[in-house]
Amino acid sequence: MLLAALLVMPGTAAEIDRLVAPAKGAAQEQQRSAYFTPETFPLEWTEEDQLYFVAEDTAVYEALCANYSFYPQRVSWQAGYNFNTEGEYAQWAQQVTADQWAQVLAEDYTYVYLYQISPGFAEKYASLFADPGDIVGRALYAVDKTGGSVQLRRVWPALS
Questions:
Q1: In whole angstroms, what is the distance from residue 153 CA to residue 160 CA?
Q2: Which residues are bridge partners to 89 per DSSP?
Q3: What is the pTM of this model?
Q4: Of 22, 100, 101, 127, which residue is most buried, by most CB within 10 angstroms?
Q5: Could you give the 3-state DSSP secondary structure of residue 140?
């Protein structure tokens, strides 16, 4: 029986590590530096601030990691963090129009972090951005609610 168990065991130390400590292996494979922490957030954070996290074409894992990394501050994806209803992870997506998303952002949010976006994201939500040519993943946008409408203005990384 021991010989049979040894025959089906993975051959490399990395494979064994993933079996023995799957959370450790997942954390090493995931670039945790991509998620903000209270210490790495590039702007001053107050109790009134709320961060909206967008991770298209991904499973729930990224949203959970972002929430964990940013604790005790709250990260949200209330309207459906995966807006891409055509992608591989469409089962976690919701059809959200630009107007619907703007309403959600206007009610509660001060920042939007576009962690990962699909190719069609920029076209669908361009009307919400101050500069539609500047819609990129891994960027932080401030939610500007002046003038009765919502405009997202990139604040990090700084425009060159």
A1: 14
A2: none
A3: 0.74
A4: 101
A5: strand
